[in-house]
Every structure is written in structure tokens, then in C-alpha cells.
Design a protein that fits this description.
binds guanosine-5'-diphosphate, Rossmann fold, 10 strands, single chain, about 425 residues, 4-stranded antiparallel beta sheet
Length: about 425
């Protein structure tokens, strides 16, 4: 557990009896209550300001993980009357307010804690280490240079506003932002895990495909329609992307009882899906009216199953497999992973993507205005707006309610 704030040293002394603490050195410490009883033998380290996570005096106590012991140590600290429980994200918020990290990096801390996949954790770590902040800072600096030369020309008539080279500079900036935004929406899926639903008519072979992908018989397969009613869920990492597979009840309208409820559940999960594997029995082909079930998720791959029973269609844009005989599964997995970027993008949080897109809009508007020969005044307004959006990413002058919103999603102790 961590203690931070100007009175950290006093608290440490009160609970350990030790008067002086060497900086950044871990020491064994007996934590005692007021009667002198040892509550816990802990390891303690004192980080004096400013070389600490929060930038203030900070101490870390390592104690045994048993919640009973943790509670009694917390009680001991609270009993000094010098401390209170931290709010959600308060350590990181203080680190931000004391200039140890910028807002994007602070968001990286939160993202790291709640990442739903291994690549998600990698993206969060890069954010925390300042990857995006560096890119955004460089963009902002470039815009600031353009803006400064235009603004200088307002004051000094002879100063060159640099309008000749402005369009090419703006072009380059737009390209850089496009590069950052590339794959951003897929990245947010990769971060949390790709919600993938296997859907199709009864008996298309959905459960067989689910089993073939997982590599073991997870779901019951039966020649009778309506076998699968509950949604089965399994996570599998394929080429660095976490897919969360759902095997569902076959969709058909003429159904009742538990099967009908199963189908309602299927519709719900379909609408929440990032990827739908829509399975068709190739020996039967598409049924009339089946198109309405396609494209309910964000992306859809049509999987023609039972390829062993028919001549495979060539170049029809569908993926052909035989789930029963495990044929074509590799190709399907490749088709799935190719829908997601292989190099992890820098931008995976909505707020960053939104602000970058806004900056892009202002720069594009500026470029158009420059080409139409608009006044430097109009150009500087666009550049100023773009700059503000970029500065919002790293949180310069961030309003308190934005900080509340961001840090309230953290857990206590971060
Ligand atoms: N010939 C053939 N039969 C298959 C294939 N995949 C599934 N089946 C059969 O189709 C029937 C329905 O399969 P199932 O996976 O339960 O379909 P679901 O209702 O869509 O989940 C079962 O009898 C399976 O053995 C395949 O690739 N080839
Ligand atoms: Mg099934």
C-alpha cells in the first residue's frame, strides 16, 4: 500500500517508531499499534519529494496479502489521524497535477490496469511511457511554428507569414495525423478483446466451427436443429489478437420456448459484436430472407461450411471451410486477424481519437482556406483550434470535471 502527501514521513515514524528514513531504500519495519503490539512485520520504503510517483513524499509498505492484515495496517495508518483513504485514481491524479506525467500518460495507467488482452496491455504501456504524448507534442510544436510566423506578420508588416510553404506543411501534418488514426477503431477492439459471434441458421455448423476453432469439443454438435440454446463463450488469442468467441442458437423465426429465448439472446450479442462469423451450410446455400441477418455486427465474415459436400465457390469473397473435417480453419483465422492491424496503433482510447480527428478537421479547413487565398487571420484561427485539440490530449489546462471523469474510472490505490 502507498501513503503520499507532505505528512508521509510523520506517519511512517508514528507506525514504525523509526525517526529517520534513508531515501529510496527498502527497510524491514515492525508496525505497532499504540499499545506497542506488533500488527505486522512489513517492508517499507520512503521516497522523498520530488523523486516519487506522485512528486510528493511517498512511502510504500509491503505487507502480507491477507485482507485481515491489510485491514489492520490500514486501520493503524488511519489511527494516526494524519491520513485518509485515497480517492479513485488519486495517486495518478497527483502525479499529473505535479507534472510527473501528462494526462495521456495518466490515462495509460488506467488503461494498463483494466486492459482486457495482452496486446491491450502493450498499447497501454506504450501510452504510459509517453509514446503518444511524444507524437502529439511534435505535431503541436510544428503547428506552433506555423502559427507563430503568421502571428508575427500581424505585428511586423515586413515579417513573412510563410504562406507559400503553408500548404505543403499542412499536407505533411495531415498525413502524420492520418498515420496516428490508422487502425484506431480496430485498436479499441484489440484493447478489450474482439467480441466475436458465430451466427447462422440452425444446423449450419456453428457449434462445429466453434469446436474446430478452439481445437476441442466445447459445444454439443447434433444433426437436429436447435441444439445450442445458451450462449457459450471462450477466449482465444490468435496471432496476437484476443477474440472472445460466442457460439449462439441458430436464428429462425418459427421457434418457441427456450429456443426462442436463445434466439433473442443471439440478437442481443450480434448487435454488440465487433466481428460476426456468419455460417452458411454451403450444401443448402443461402435461404430466402437470410440477408437480413448479415451485417448486424461491425464486421462480418461469411463462412461457407460443409465444403466437403460441394464444389468450393472460387473468389466469391467468402471463406470456405469444413468444420466437421477441420478443413480451411487456418484460412479463416488468417482472414479474421487480417481485419485487425498487425502493428499496434498508438491511439486506442476514444478521447484521443476524437481530439486528433478534430485537430485534423481544423488543419484540413486551414489547408482549404490557404489554397483559396484566405487572410492570415482566418488561417491562424484554424491553426489555433487544431493546437488546442492536441494540447487537450496531453491535458494542458484540463478542467477539473474532465479530470474527475478520467480518474473516477481508476481504482483506489492507483
Ligand atoms: N458434412 C459436413 N457436416 C457438417 C459440417 N459441419 C457440421 N456438420 C454437421 O451439421 C450438423 C449440425 O452441426 P452443428 O455444429 O450442431 O450446427 P449448429 O446448429 O449450427 O450449431 C451436425 O450433424 C454436424 O455433424 C461439415 O463441415 N461437413
Ligand atoms: Mg449449435
Amino acid at each position: 500500500m502507498r501513503i503520499s502527501g507532505p505528512r508521509t514521513g510523520e506517519i511512517l515514524t508514528a507506525i514504525t517508531g523509526r525517526e529517520t528514513w534513508p531515501a529510496h531504500v527498502q527497510m524491514p519495519a515492525s508496525l505497532r499499534d499504540r499499545t506497542g503490539r506488533v500488527v505486522e512485520k512489513a517492508m517499507a520504503v520512503f521516497h522523498p519529494a520530488p523523486r516519487s510517483y506522485t512528486g510528493e513524499d511517498l512511502s510504500e509498505l509491503g505487507c502480507h496479502g491477507n485482507p485481515l492484515i491489510v485491514d489492520s495496517v490500514m486501520e493503524l495508518i488511519r489511527g494516526t489521524g494524519l491520513a485518509r483513504l485515497a480517492e479513485k485514481g488519486e495517486f495518478t491524479r497527483r502525479a499529473f497535477l505535479n507534472g510527473k506525467i501528462d494526462l495521456a500518460q495518466a490515462e495509460g495507467v488506467g488503461a494498463l490496469v483494466s486492459a482486457g488482452s495482452a496486446p491491450g496491455a502493450d498499447m497501454a504501456r506504450s501510452l504510459l511511457e509517453g509514446g503518444l504524448s511524444g507524437d502529439v507534442g511534435a505535431l503541436a510544436d510544428e503547428i506552433q511554428v506555423l502559427l507563430s510566423s503568421i502571428e508575427a506578420s500581424f505585428i511586423l508588416d515586413e515579417a513573412d507569414p510563410g504562406l507559400d510553404s503553408l500548404p505543403s506543411s499542412l499536407d505533411a501534418l495531415l498525413g502524420e495525423i492520418d498515420g496516428l488514426l490508422e487502425g484506431a477503431s480496430e485498436a479499441s477492439r484489440i484493447y478489450s478483446g474482439v467480441v466475436t459471434t458465430i451466427a447462422g441458421l440452425p444446423n449450419a455448423g456453428k457449434s462445429s466451427l466453434f469446436n474446430a476453432i478452439l481445437g476441442y469439443p466445447r459445444a454439443i454438435v447434433h444433426h437436429e436443429g436447435g441444439t445450442t440454446r445458451d450462449i457459450l463463450r471462450e477466449r482465444l488469442e490468435i496471432s496476437g489478437v484476443d477474440f472472445i468467441f460466442h457460439d449462439t442458437a441458430g436464428i429462425r423465426t418459427a421457434s418457441s420456448g427456450p429456443e426462442e429465448i436463445g434466439i433473442q439472446n443471439t440478437m442481443e450479442i450480434l448487435k454488440k459484436s465487433h466481428l460476426v462469423l456468419y455460417v452458411v451450410d454451403a450444401s443448402a446455400g443461402f435461404s430466402p430472407g437470410e440477408e437480413q441477418w448479415l451485417n448486424l455486427g461491425e464486421k462480418t465474415l461469411i463462412v461457407m461450411n460443409k465444403a466437403d459436400l460441394v464444389e468450393a465457390g472460387q473468389g466469391d469473397g467468402h471463406v470456405w471451410v469444413s468444420a466437421k473435417y477441420g478443413l480451411g480453419i487456418e484460412g479463416l483465422l488468417e482472414a479474421m486477424t487480417s481485419l485487425f492491424p498487425q502493428d499496434l496503433p498508438r491511439v486506442f482510447l476514444e478521447r484521443h481519437a476524437y481530439l486528433l480527428a478534430r485537430a485534423r478537421e481544423d488543419l484540413a479547413h486551414c489547408l482549404e482556406s490557404a489554397r483559396r487565398g484566405m487572410t492570415p487571420d482566418a488561417l491562424s484561427m484554424d491553426l489555433g483550434a487544431a493546437l488546442r485539440s492536441l494540447r487537450d490530449i496531453t491535458g494542458e489546462d484540463a478542467p477539473a470535471d474532465l479530470l474527475d471523469d478520467i480518474f473516477s474510472r481508476f481504482c483506489v490505490g492507483k
